[in-house]
Amino acid sequence: MQKNLKDPTRPYAPMPASVIRTRIRLGSWFSRHQTAGKIISVAALLTGAFYLVWRVVFTLPGADPIFFWPLFLAEAFGYITFITLVVEAWEIPLTPRLAPLDLAVDIIIATYDEDIDIVLPTVIGAKKVRGNTTIWLCDDGRRPEMKKLAKDYDIKYQVRDDNLYAKAGNINAVLPKLKGDLILVLDADHVPSPDFLEATTGYFVDPKLALIQTAHSFRNHNSVMHEEEGRHEQSLFFDVLLPGRNRLKSVFWCGSAGLIRRSALLSVGGMAIATSTEDFETSLSLQVAGYDIKYHNEHLVQGLAPDNMEAYTIQRFRWAQGTIGSYRKGGRKAWSRELSFGQRFSYTGGLLYHVTPLQRLAYTLSIFAVTIFAVQPVGYAGEYYLYFWGAWVLLSLLSVVALERGVTQPFEGMRNNLIVLEAFLRALPSMFTKTEMKFVVTPKNEVDLGGWGSVKLLRLPIILTGLTITALAIRWYDIWLNNVYGQGFLAPMSATGIIVATVFGVVEAAIVFSMTARVYNRRQHRKLWRFPVDMPAKLANKKAKCIDLHHAGAGIVVPSSVVTEDEVGVGSTVEVCVQCRTITGASVVARGQMKVTNVGPFSEAGAAVRLGGPVEWNTHEDRDAVVEHCYVVEPYVARNQAWARRAPRVPVSLQATLAEQPANCVDLSIYGAAFMCEKDAWAVGEIVEVTLTLEDGHVVNGNLEVKNVTLGDDEWFRIGGTTQWAETSWLHRYTTLAMVPASRNRSVLPPV
């Protein structure tokens, strides 16, 4: 979600980028006008098909076949991948909130070498998940500190004698001990939302459902793969493609944030161990066995994205190696006859994505050969070639913008493909070898110092682009010689060929230059992401405000007089208190000692100063209060507020109390409500205790954060705001989509 620049402490709401407005205005416009995008996509499909047929019929005669077919196949490859995008992103169905089921759930936190700073928030988040849960910390690192962590938080601790088959083996080792109906698997850095089970268990009323996958959201918005707050390199996959794949039944488990039916997993022999992408292989085993997998388009976990280029390429190589390796001879479940055509089509599209380096090499070598040696990859290169090629390229680019609905810029996909070019090429042999794949854990909690150490990871796209630009420079120098002196040193080539090669080369060079500069200039010195907050605080017993926070440090704003009068400066240690909130809305004060490492002006006039540094909290309870506030409460409350602005309100008339004052609830939505009350005792921003009596007499409790108070004509006060309920199993009765036209509800996530 785009950060409000006027309010830098506004908490991030983990929302699907495809249903909110991002900085990409054209794409966001198409997300609200999907019919226009569909029309353009159909036009692009027809234009592309016409262009490819025309290419064979009119440009093959007279062409050098050695160069014609690689170039033509590269173009056909692009058209096929475009078809895949159109099919998968054609429609994003609305995501329901079904009535939750009361099922026992085992929560598995899989860890190997992650720091305790990473695992601790996940444990606390898992403890806050509402429902009948048993938490397992499965530690393949067999570390004493993890055993102590499990004991301190009264969760189960699981180890094994070896690390065979990595994460898959780790999960398989604990499977015989599990007793729950469902299993929630979390990566060590994935902190779940308290309402995770309330949002997902309802799907399991279908006995054929084996797994429900949810989105991966990332809290460290300064990562190497983030484009803006909340929008990152995986937004297209989680916010557009996976929701669209629900129609094709080709959703697969993404390794974390997925809720699995235990009996289904056991029926296929547990986790698959053949490749380094055990999640994808296990999904195929389940679907071949006749089970379904669905996607719930709601961001219910927040993890860590790769901090730097090295971690990013390590992760992408593992994914590519596992996906490509699953198509080895003797495997290839993705092409099993037990799967539907839609599933096989979708999974083949995933394979093609990982072999795009071959297309890129074909383009580069073709341009080099044409530009330097004037080879003839086409028999006709007149003006019609330029017209048909240009129409296809422009329409396909516009279609991609429309279908991706504001989650990527027009050329971000090309840039991302270039970044992983070398990693994907190294993974290609996995399809033809039987070598065991090594599972390498993505490094986390790292700094990013940019520079040439990061740039060298982009060496292959830089070299290829350098070849293209060198060839174009030589060709244009030859053209200049011809114009000035009447004779060049290269064989002549068509004007159309020069134009096409130059456009392609200049666009690619601009992308590579921008990508290289961005990677080189990155400077991220802090390992742990600080959450932007706006919290009452005290520093040296003086009133202050906390503006960024995590469980190991903070940033505090105070009047400049506090620094001078109390001699607070760099190197000093000062007492700090921060007023945190629990998931129930209660206030808890966390106290600790801050070692000041930086002091700087916060306001232009110099009246306020920001002090920052590591904090040693007085007790574990103080530290845990900070963890709960930052990792659980902040994203949960922000998401509730964001959905409350989008979900339809349903009129009701229910007896209620606000802070023990009699009231009447007059409308409800998934995350909000409005009440009528005789008394004016409410302040905007206040947290008010609420009780609600349903028609069947059931009483539910929660909190209302007051957003507005208005006086009606009948002199009753209307109090509206966002709500947090102790349990939400009843909400599906009072929230519906039927009242709101579908065309106005592209951005709504309603319960059904």
Describe what you observe in this structure.
By secondary structure, the protein is α+β, with helices and mostly antiparallel strands. The chain has 21 helices and 25 strands. The strands form five sheets. The chain has a seven-stranded mixed sheet with strand order 3-2-1-4-10-6-11, with helices on both faces. A six-stranded antiparallel β-barrel has the order 13-14-15-19-17-16. Strand 13 and strand 14 form a beta hairpin. Helix 3 packs antiparallel against helix 13 and helix 13 runs parallel beside helix 18. The longest helix has 27 residues. The protein is globular and about 90 Å long. The two termini are 25 Å apart. The N terminus and C terminus are likely disordered.
Write the layout of secondary structure elements.
Elements: H1 25-32, H2 34-59, H3 65-89, E1 104-111, H4 116-127, E2 132-139, H5 144-152, E3 156-158, H6 166-174, E4 182-187, E5 191-192, H7 196-200, E6 209-214, E7 217-218, E8 226-228, E9 231-232, H8 235-248, E10 258-261, H9 262-267, H10 278-288, E11 292-296, E12 301-303, H11 309-325, H12 341-354, H13 356-373, H14 383-404, H15 412-419, H16 421-427, H17 451-455, H18 459-485, H19 495-521, E13 531-539, E14 542-550, E15 553-559, H20 560-565, E16 573-581, E17 587-595, E18 598-601, E19 608-617, H21 620-644, E20 650-658, E21 661-668, E22 672-677, E23 687-693, E24 699-711, E25 717-725
Parallel strand pairs: 1-2, 1-4, 2-3, 6-11, 7-12
Antiparallel strand pairs: 4-10, 5-12, 6-10, 8-9, 13-14, 13-16, 14-15, 15-19, 16-17, 17-19, 18-19, 20-21, 20-23, 21-22, 22-25, 23-24, 24-25
Helix pairs in contact: 1-14, 2-3, 2-14, 3-8, 3-12, 3-13, 3-14, 4-21, 11-16, 13-18, 15-19, 18-19
